[in-house]
Amino acid sequence: MDIVKGLVQERSVVIFSKTNCPVSHTMIQLISGFGANPTVYELDQLPNGRDIEKVLHTMGCQPSVPSIFIGGNLVGGPNDVLSLQVQGRLAQMLMDAGAIWLWNGNYYCQTESKCNNVPDTGVKLGFSLISIMFPII
Taking the complete model, does pTM exceed 0.85, yes or no? Predict the structure, then answer.
């Protein structure tokens, strides 16, 4: 567990991913859509990626990617993150972790003096992500 703790410590958002995982890419885009700059570890590109993956499994990450940490704490996988998004709690978690300064649904501020207009990544995006992951037959 120390290897994962060392990687997530002192970083506001960390995503463990694999380069060929579309769900990981979707989670990275969702978090980035708030204006956060997540640290992404591509496990299939790291020499100790398999060891990290085993640790993530022991921490309860099933499957191991994507695994999302916010504020040094394990949030979980994509279902957990989408749940937080649908509940309207994800933005607050990102603010609490210092990943973003301010969020009102349309603007984010990474510093007190620099705000940018970004696309709305509200509940509608969360539902579209769910429908992509679990298409209706």
Answer: no
